[in-house]
Design goal:
9 helices; 2 domains; globular; eight-stranded antiparallel beta sheet; alpha+beta
Length: 256
């Protein structure tokens, strides 16, 4: 199997060399399928937008926004991109990046990836230094993650439509009907597998999405609160502080 670049099949790419790392944002079109292939360098990647189905020899997962993926050099895998395609931030290095395969959800990784995206979009003389530091943060997060046991396939399938429609109203009964299980069984299995309820998972994803928008845009906080599905800004502020330990206004101020 020949090794291919991480940009294989992309519609857009922005890259920078930062210390020992090659850091890129790569954008893949909807519905793309990349059959079994490998990359010459080890890499750690974060899905910023969209969903990609990753299939390795011993692991299979649907990686949505916020997923943190690690793979060593020459690791065979297959990629299937969802109906919205995907944007992925990738950190590559010749050695010491990814000792094994993993795919986990990590809100911290998503925020670091969004900061990398911002640096790549508006580079200056200090961008290589800033991106190198952010790449090291991602490597530390990946090193602390572990490969989760493979979930029942139907439980994993629940998360795909939720991630793709994160700002739409989520109805557990409709999700259960789509999967073909009872709503009560869905609730129990989801919490047992992921350690949080479906509602907690949706709220966490919406808050992570809102945090990313605060970094990438200047949308008013009240507008973001409504877009993220909260009834008002005060409710949004309380939920945001519980998750991130700071208010939305202070969080945005630290990113400027």
């Amino acid at each position: 199997m020949s090794a291919v670049a991480v940009s294989e099949g992309t519609t857009r790419q922005a890259s920078i060399d930062a210390g020992p790392f090659r850091v890129s944002e790569v954008v893949f079109p909807p519905g793309l399928r990349l059959p079994w292939h490998a990359h010459p360098h080890g890499c750690v990647a974060v899905v910023v937008d969209g969903v990609v189905g990753k299939r390795f020899r011993r692991l299979e997962a649907d990686a949505g926004a916020g997923a943190l993926i690690s793979m060593p050099p020459e690791e065979p895998h297959e990629d299937r991109f969802g109906r919205a395609g995907a944007a992925i931030v990738v950190v590559e290095a010749e050695e010491g990046v990814a000792p094994g395969v993993s795919c986990t959800a990590d809100g911290g990784g998503a925020l670091v990836a969004l900061r990398i995206r911002r640096e790549l979009a508006a580079p200056d003389a200090f961008t290589p230094l800033a991106v190198e530091g952010l790449a090291l943060e991602l490597l530390a997060l990946a090193g602390r993650s572990r490969v989760p046991p493979r979930p029942e396939l139907w439980v994993e399938r629940v998360r795909v439509p939720v991630r793709e429609r994160i700002r739409d109203p989520i109805e557990p009964r409709r999700l259960a009907a789509e999967i073909g299980v009872h709503p009560a069984h869905l609730a129990r299995a989801f919490r047992a597998r992921y350690g949080e309820t479906l509602g907690e998972y949706v709220r966490r994803l919406r808050l992570e999405w809102a945090a990313g928008e605060m970094i990438a845009t200047d949308k008013p906080l009240a507008f973001l609160a409504v877009e993220a599905g909260f009834c008002d800004q005060s409710h949004f502020t309380r939920a945001f502080k519980r998750q991130f330990g700071t208010t939305p206004a202070r969080f945005r101020a630290t990113q400027l």
